[in-house]
Amino acid sequence: MSSTTEKTSRVSVEERLFSLVLALIATEIGLTKADILSTVQGYRQRYVPGGNNASLERQFERDKDDIRELGIPLEVVEPPDDPGSNHHLRYRIPKGLYDLPADVSFTADELMLLKLAATVWREGSLSAESRRAMTKLNALGIDASDPVLGYSPSLRVREASFEPLSKAMDRGQVVAFLYLKPGEAAPRRRQVEPRAVVLYDGRWHLFGTDRDAAANRTFLLSRIAGPVVAVPGATFVPPGEGQAQEAIGELDALWNANIASVSVQSGSDAAVRLSKRHSAGSVRLHELDTAVYLHYTDLNVLADELAGFGPEVLVRSPAALRSAVRSRLIAVRESHTDAPTIGLTEEGE
Fold this sequence. Notes:
This protein is an alpha+beta fold. The protein folds into 3 domains: about 5-140, no CATH class; about 160-240, SH3 type barrels (Roll); about 260-335, Alpha-Beta Plaits (2-Layer Sandwich). It is about 40% helix and about 25% strand. It contains 11 helices and 12 strands. The chain has helices at about 5-10, 15-25, 35-40, 55-70, 110-125, 130-140, 160-170, 245-255, 270-275, 300-305, 320-335; strands at about 30, 75, 90, 175-180, 190-200, 205-210, 215-220, 225-235, 260-265, 280-285, 290-295, 315. The strands form 3 sheets. A 5-stranded antiparallel sheet has the order 7-6-5-4-8. Helix 10 (about 300-305) packs across helix 11. Pfam families: WCX, WYL.
């Protein structure tokens, strides 16, 4: 592949994050930011030796947040001879955390299936470009020959709006999109300066400045209807480091402030699934029911989830969540029957 073709080839976000995780697992001593940007697939195509790589560095900062949101422990190692130096910080992922426990074993059939899955994953997900990047890492003194299949790829599927929003952030472009808020009959056009896209509580959020409201807002990417387009001639100063943390801080505050009280049937699917969520605790009401207290950031997203459990769940508070779940259950019933909307009382959720 020629250098021109290599620089213009498009690397997906998933492949870039995957290559970054592989590189950080493979190293024992860690990689500096310069090592990563100049070597790892997805960065090196745009890296300019000795030039301005500010947008690439911002991309790396967002990727670090994404890796941590995926639950992967990313370590930052300071050089002992130059503490506090950002230029010489090294990044690594401790490979030992992905080793199987000593008491875990597999049958012959299970091993055969695991080997088959590993082969499909290795050939299907680790492209020739990624393998070439791993080879280049050897030149940095990194032993990349150890198997890294102990790491399970758990990168989440992103909404279609993720890529254009990321590009707009790098280029300082104002974007426009249709956004459908719950309770509104039709989506409204928004003009936003995108400042961070973060994964929080399993969902992607856009943190940016809404130009019409002249204030910062957080948008759920799943509610963006249609394409994200750049507004001709509208630009802003690209965000620096810390925007993602600011967005997560606002979502943390919202999550901590919102608590729902829900009764679940003991032993039900709802009891098993909701008990695994981050919650404010649970109280056994009696033999048949347990009260679970759930933190949440978006009332309507939680209402969709709770309605899916049907009669296994009874929302006690807040009233707005209770009403939202009830309306969803009524809509489901009406879509399956011609019966009038009677009989589903407030206690029938």
